[in-house]
Amino acid sequence: xKKQHALTLGIALALSGTQIxxxxxxxxxxAAFNASLNRNAxxxxxxxxxxxxxxxxxxxxxxxxxxxxxxxxxxxxxQAHYVAETLQRINADVVLVNExxxxxxxxxxxxxxPSALGYTSQAHQLFNxxxxxxxxxxxxxxxxxxxxIDYAFGYTPTTNTGLHSGFDLDNNGVIDSTPGDGTFGxxxxxxGEFAGKFGFTIFSRFEIKAVRTFQNFLWKDMPGNLLxxxxxxxxxxxxYSQAEMDAFRLSSKNHVDxxxxxxxxxxxxxxxxPTPPVFDGIEDRNGKRNYDEIRFWRDxxxxxxxxxxxxxxxxxxxPNSIFxxxxxxxxxxxxxxxxxxxxxxxxxxAIGQLLNDPLVNASVTPESAGGTAAAxxxxxxxxxxxxxxxxxxxDTADFNDVAPGNLRVDYVLPSSNIELLNAAxxxxxxxxxxxPLVGTFRNLNLFANFPTxxxxxxxxxxxxxxxxxxxxxxxxxxxxxxAQARRRx
Length: 489
Description:
Blueprint: H1 2-22, E1 26-37, H2 44-49, H3 72-90, E2 94-100, E3 113-115, E4 118-120, H4 122-132, E5 153-155, H5 182-186, E6 200-204, E7 208-213, H6 236-239, H7 242-247, E8 256-262, E9 265-271, H8 285-301, E10 322-328, E11 340-343, E12 346-349, H9 352-355, H10 369-375, E13 410-414, E14 419-425, E15 458-464, H11 470-488
Parallel strand pairs: 1-2, 9-10
Antiparallel strand pairs: 1-15, 2-6, 3-4, 5-6, 7-8, 8-9, 10-13, 11-12, 14-15
Helix pairs in contact: 1-11
């Protein structure tokens, strides 16, 4: 009986030890990357994702002469390969990819189909299977080998980009309802030459438990909004008609809350891609919309009751919720064309609404050596960077150096109730073997004028602790097993 007692107690200890180990804090990497995987036609991205072998991605690099002989379609596929390698090198557990076209119809006979939690995008799945799932680097590339990655979970929301409004939203005197040109995009609820352009998608190693979307939320329903309550002289009340304001959606793409289960905790991944605060006039309609799109997340994390989702739910996050805000938010803290608003008695650019909120952990600012190098690159075509206030090591986008210059516009912002361990921008310098994945400004040999994108991937490592009381539960189970073993002994 003593042997049985010892064996039973040993099993109990072994089992409980395994459970306790799995209930300790885990480090999770979240990332955001505007990958510029937008295309010129609605079926192009899905076609590219289905044809990964149309180009040899193992060649040294597309700056070489070999790129000149590639077709436009091959250059698109090559870009997708370099986006995939970038994501593999970051190796995030959860990543938002902005500017990933939504495949409403795709190729004949295929479509994205509704699921319980949103949409299952074929382009998303093909990118995972045909690109992310293929190891890269090594050989003649000059870069180290990097392992394939596979995301078990994903979500691709529908988008307001290219969704026509039926109004003349740019006030040019014409309601352009013909997809394919810029004036059509200007009259859509979010700019896009066709429905689905500039969408986004999410890849995750963790299970998606629930989704809330806010695609249909009306701008006018935000209290104190800049659509109907614009305090400036060139206010939007004078720019838009009443009918337009009654129908205008706040989100230029979508705002989504994807709830993940991580280490027993519910973690809200808050993804969006606000409109850039440019491409407008003195009324600054895009700057003001960008400001309120960012404000939406500030109100949401603070539990604002006015918010309603597309599923019929109301209100923002509950107190003490764990969240990570991610995306190309198109707003630099101090530079660029961002609309400025007051927080208390201090005026901030739009992103200041989040960076200065006590619920947001902004204790570590992502940085890179490549950002600093790019700001002073002798091949720059302008001097905008020289007039910037912000430190270029924090920049995340390699924009035109005439204007606006390089900016910090991409963010991964965790909640203040989780520990932020590390954060960085994937922007290697010229001397780094991985530099070919980011390249230099406006290489006209490449489809997107960059190997991947003018934006750089941003990531943050956070610590997710187990559900409070989990260790107590395991400890109780251990005591119970030990007591049972003693009784049997």
